[in-house]
Amino acid sequence: MEEHWLNRAAEHLAPRTISSSGSAKIHCEILFPESDFDFHKGYSCSICFDGRVFMRRKEFSRDEWTFRILRTVPSDVFDRMRSFCKGCVGDYFNHLGFGMYGLSSGVIRINGSWTRRFHPMTRRWFCSEIVIEALKIGGYLPTDLSSVQHPETLYQLLQSQSSAGTAKNCSNFIV
Fold first, then answer.
1. Burial class of 69 by CB neighbour count within 10 A (0 to 12, 13 to 18, 19+)
2. Pairing of strands 92-93, 124-125
3. Which of 14, 21, 79, 127 is the most buried (most CB within 10 A)?
């Protein structure tokens, strides 16, 4: 990730890392590969600070990305998660949830549904929040799990049901 004060702050707030690199994960995206033979290209869904949810074609070639490859993903589950992500495109960043999580060192967790009190069709997100919700829809995370988690926490949660990989050697689905 680029050098930015928010990235440094996110790394500072991360739980203790278990990865071999020793540096915390500070951003996450969910990738839906285009084919079973070209696993580093596909449609990626996430959001960056102060942006909007995107789902756009990406090609991951940088070595600094760390991937968790979900084990076999049935096509109906794949389609449900992808449809959910497509439906969120254009939603705004969850500034309140992101800020309160940071200011409270992760104690106060305000998910992006708070905006529905003012407008029933509005939802706000930050990167791990939208990825966690997609994974809950797919049955990979418990539905009662708070979606307000640090990206490093998400990385750790996926350890037991995924395998480490690179953009060059994954199959069917990567996070």
1. buried
2. parallel
3. 127
- Report the C-alpha gap between 14 and 26 in whole angstroms: 8
Amino acid at 99: G
**DSSP label of 174:** B
The string of pLDDT tens digits covering residues 132-172 is 999 999 988 999 998 888 888 898 888 887 777 654 444 34
CA distances from 123 to 10, 30, 85, 119, 156 (A): 22, 18, 12, 9, 26
Domain boundaries, the chain: 27-165
Distance CA(139)–CA(62), nearest Å, equals: 29
128: tokens are 């791990």
Rg (CA), the chain: 15
- Is pTM beyond 0.90? Reply is no
Q: What is the dihedral of CA 155, 156, 158, 164, to 10 degrees?
A: 70
CA angle at residue 38 from 70 to 140, to 5 degrees? 15
